[in-house]
Amino acid sequence: MSWIILFIAGLLEIGWAIGLKYSEGFTKLWPTAWTVFSLAASFLLLGLALKTLPVGTAYAIWVGIGAVGTAVLGIVLFGESVGVLKLVSLTLIVAGLVGLKLSHA
User: What is the pLDDT of residue 75?
Assistant: First the structure.
């Protein structure tokens, strides 16, 4: 169950990172509200997952999910640049996350 909670926390990290962009410096109400909500929920769920998961592994996976998801959504939603090096780098991050998960099995 802790891995599912951690995964949801990572998805919420993506939510607050993207929400920051949409909030335009916290000048738009609903994107700001979403950002604050998803930030708080992400931290809460990370804290719950840390009850049973090792902090180094859980934190790295949480950050990795957020980093990869935010980078992908930056490309899709905001037209950020995409190239071979960026895609390879994101793939390497995902491989590292899978390796961390497997090392904990």
Answer: 97
Q: Rounded distance, CA 87 to CA 21, Å?
A: 22
Number of domains in the chain: 1
Structure tokens at 91: 């793939």
DSSP 8-state class, residue 100? H
pLDDT digits (tens, 9 = 90+) for 49-94: 999 999 999 999 999 999 999 999 999 999 999 999 999 999 999 9
CB atoms within 10 A of CB 9: 25
**Residue 43 CB partners (closer than 8 Å, separation 6+):** 9
Using CA atoms, how far apart are residues 83 and 61, in angstroms rounded to an integer? 24
Q: pTM for this structure?
A: 0.92
**Could you tell me if residue 79 is left (phi over 0), alpha (psi between -120 and 50 degrees) or otherwise beta?**
left
SS (H, E, C) 64-89: HHHHHHHHHHHHHHHCCCCCHHHHHH
DSSP 51: T
